[in-house]
Queue: 3 jobs
Job 1
Amino acid sequence: MNELRSRFTGVFTALVTPFRDGSIDFAAFDALVERQIAAGVAGLVPVGTTGEAATLSDDEADQLIARTVEKSRGRALVMAGAGANDTKKAVEKVRRAEAAGADAVLVVTPYYNKPTQAGLIAHYGAVAGATALPVMLYSVPGRCGVEIAAETCATLMCNHANIFSIKEAGGNAARVSELRRACGDELIVHSGDDGLTLPFLSLGAVGVTSVVANVAPESMVAMVRAWHEGNTAHALALHDLVAELTDGMFVESNPGPVKAALALNNLSGPEMRLPMVPVSDANRERLAGILNRYTSAASGVLGAR
């Protein structure tokens, strides 16, 4: 467990999927992956919500996972998004992610159909039984309409050795304490909300699966590292540095704002797949101002200790 905790400590970037004229822009994707690794992220998460998994074909998802594995060359852990609201499909996605070379899988709660806690136990049990890979649960009730209860997490950990962690994105830092009380110190918690990363760390989380790290990987890595090194003042300064940028990533539905920010920085295009559309002109201008303020302040804060 100590080895697992070490591997899942730090910043995991929920990668966007760049598109050009309707197809995946692999050149831009490769460059984004390399930028993340250069910044020192611990993990990469292709084919998640931020990667527009809902509108990717199975073959496209396989290609993105395999590409992330190939380009990272073991320099970062690859945790592939592999969720579905049909258990049979989720099992298939997990098996395909394993075949594509992923190191772990991130499995979101079934969305729209809103299963009971008994249904979640059965769903995740089927997924965990279909793979030898580590499975990170993903609770995001705002998108899925159902939360993984702390007791459900404990039951799943007890019954399945490869369920060891949770990405908690319910917007409530108190959930970290609730989960740890139910599951014990062996549970590995990731923040699923960038703005709550520092509070989560203070309550026992070890890392974050991050949207804003697409844009500001150095700052997110430095913040989490500062916390783990005991430099809480510097961690707080970095939290303050990225706070406005983090809020900006959700002026519209994810991943519209983060794609707009990457486009403003000439790192990839803003193109999305329907029903998602690029952010409004007004929000694009708002993001441009946020990016300018972040860039102006970043060097000074990153250079301080």
Job 2
Amino acid sequence: MTKDLMEEIIRVAVEAGDRIMKIYEGDIQVEHKDDSSPLTEADRRSHEHIVSELKKITPEIPILSEESADISWQERKRWDEYWLVDPLDGTKEFIKKNGEFTVNIALIKENTPVAGVVIIPAQNLIYLADIKNGSFRRDYDGSEIKLTANNNLNTNKLKIVGSRSHQSELMQTFVSNFQKYEIVAAGSSLKFCLLAEGKADVYPRFGPTSEWDTAAGQCVLECAGGVVFDNEGNKLQYNTKDSVLNPYFIGMRRYDETVVNHFKSLVFGSSGI
């Protein structure tokens, strides 16, 4: 991705975040989708802005967003390149007003995230990544640092990132493999960003996620030197099937065979969802 295009995508995501914050600072009205997941006006406004702007910037690239996910597999499977958008990841965190929600825009090429932007509007933080230039964290004031995540893991004192909103028996079994560990609680795609910054080591996911939940964050982590594997030990990929649900997966700031084997032993042969 060119620098100019990246800056345009950042602009769009920040503007979407500004729209979200206007609602965040007032009374939040919550509806529910058919699957009982929460939906707010902030989700809609962010989605509408991002899709409208992306169509202006790259009219030739199709868009798949959580709030317009009814595009058929017959159409999607012809896409070699597309934008994958989660206009408000962490709606539950948004409703709780804990600040741990994000705006996510990823560019997918040949089933792989090649560029991604994650905005944390309540913290004025931007994470940006592409496969040519790496991963960066930028404050809204413009100060920026490059992220390098792949220092050796200390499996005797792992920092394992988990969700504030989701827990499972599989997660409890996974952490029991390690004598000493620390749970780092975080919401939304912020979990990938913590790994990319080296603030956590491992993110095992044993609960439901969709492809728009993970693509931008995965790009940030991988471009910083980390890895994300599915339940069969393959790189987590996109737009390979009719369903947009992810399998179980594990993100690590550096590959560690012992950690991967513990993960695979729990979910081997499982499709995740």
Job 3
Amino acid sequence: MQRRRINLPLNPLRSFAVASRHKTFTAAARELGVSQVAISRQIAILEDFLDVSLFERGVRSAKLTDVGRAFGQEISGLFDDLERATERMISHETEGTVNLRIHPTVAHYWLMPKLMDFTRRHPDIRVRFDTRVEPLDFRGTHLDVALQLGRDDWRDARSRKLWDEEVDVVCSRDYLMSIGGLSQPADVVRGDLLHSHYRRRAWEYWARDVGLDLDTNRGTDFETSLLTYSAAQQGFGLAIGQLGLLDDVIAEGKLVRPLDMRLPTGAGFYVIWPTTVSVGVKTKRFIDWLLDQVGQPREFFRSGSADKT
């Protein structure tokens, strides 16, 4: 006859295991990051489930019963074993993974077309993308490395510049014909301006650099540059294109640069890694591979020594 399995109340069991080790609700609450009341409530749930008293509660304190003390000694080690097994699993799962922070636009237009080469050279290393758009801070994260646009001012990190950011007006060939072409910066007033939420002042900076009085509040806004460039390819208007990212798209004729004016922004695209922890071999290989893609000297391995896992 098959034995009926008990639907164990794991959260109350965990709370009790910690409380029995510390012998106080206060210390257990501090370790688990919850309130003392929450610990007391979880243990009460367990007591109801077991139909026994695990703690004797006084006005200002709680004391383990004999049953509670024996039960705590028996299960506390089980939770320690479970935590160690989980840590081993996570370590094994991530030991061959590079956790990369990268903006979606950079991933789509620049990294993805090249990444198969890295996979071929290092088949045992996976790259996991974190595409959140927020200030880069390696503390409290599992990030190994980042590819970001900025000015080399990241905290607790080292970096290498991959390329300088340069911009130009881009659009589709059909859209360019529909507005009668562009031969000088002032002609952009004939077109519809496309904006990205995270680069909302791109047109303002471009107009300032070319000496043009342009109403940059008109046009269509998109959440990301990825959507903005897609809209430009589909003929919705003019965009301020980041040339290092869009080189392949421009070479394929999907976007054109009618003014042919490369304007540096003063920012650059960097590969960044933390200095607060040691850099793993897998991350070093990925960083060197990124530098290879732009013809920069490697940071960690001599050429040829890191081409295979």
